[in-house]
């Protein structure tokens, strides 16, 4: 019943926003919450910023949630998607099933302060370093959307950021870029095969939510179901999950079909060389620099931590870490990339599609 009520509210807001005749009016659904930063200094068209309905912090971000072992999780199915992070031997999974309801998890993993940001409307899970200008902050959910994408705000300065742009677009930090922290997206079954001792965000968050039941119905799979206006590029099915590599104002995307005949692709984009590896369950990308450009990588994934080997007999994992061989402890450069619904990438970037 909660899911039906929430969907009805959101759909009602969508109808109101689409019927607005004043396209110059900011936050078109309704007047912004009094706590929202409405400074006129925006680097995106303010007329295209929509109020999603719940208001600032109406979708509550989590901070340092409780984690439990994978076998203790009851709200996840094997095909549910998770965002994985690894710092040394500390391996954690942040499920979409939690992020559907909270959108941001502020966490500390050893010496790393991360904001795991996830937008259910664009399917984008992106990790941000919470050290901004030398000080640690946390991020909250502003309740605003741009191109139907999440706009977080940082609690230190109340600046608004656009998730897919990784950039502050309003407030004292306007123009500041977030430092990315690589997150690996795959299904829960595959993640457990790679890291069987992983910790997973507990369903005991302190909030009464039906984790495991999305509040957005069939939104993730219905190419005709949108809650807010966005330009739509029909070159691919609109809700197809793709990996996007971004470089300034441009992006290149890779589909799961790209890996039907080969699991490792060496490609170039904007003068940089990349290694992109994938299968039916995940896609990862690394920027090849210096001596790593000459290595011959071979796909070697078989339900374990090893993703690939090279001609020097090193083995590498999905985070680009060499885990055995003479290069053990070395790290490939993670590409500036994220998984997304296809429509959301060309909404922000000039986008090309990889073709075999």
What's the gist of this structure?
The chain is mainly beta and 356 residues long. The chain has three helices and 29 strands.
Describe the protein's architecture and organization.
The protein has 356 residues and is mostly beta strands. It has 2 domains: 200 residues, no CATH class; 113 residues, Rieske Iron-sulfur Protein. Helices cover 9% and strands 36% of the residues. The protein is built from 3 helices and 29 strands. A 5-stranded mixed sheet has the order 2-6-7-8-15. Strands 3-17-5-4-16 form a 5-stranded mixed sheet. It has a 4-stranded mixed sheet with strand order 28-18-19-29, with no helix packed on it. A hairpin with a 2-residue loop joins strand 11 and strand 12.
Topology readout:
Elements: H1 2-19, E1 49-51, E2 62-63, E3 67-69, E4 81-87, E5 90-95, H2 96-102, E6 104-109, E7 112-119, E8 124-129, E9 131-132, E10 135-136, E11 139-146, E12 149-154, E13 160-162, E14 167-170, E15 180-181, E16 184-187, H3 188-194, E17 199-201, E18 241-247, E19 250-255, E20 264-269, E21 272-278, E22 283-288, E23 297-299, E24 308-310, E25 315-316, E26 322-324, E27 333-334, E28 337-341, E29 350-353
Parallel strand pairs: 2-6, 5-17, 19-29
Antiparallel strand pairs: 1-11, 3-17, 4-5, 4-16, 6-7, 7-8, 8-15, 9-10, 11-12, 13-14, 18-19, 18-28, 20-21, 21-22, 22-27, 23-24, 24-25, 25-26
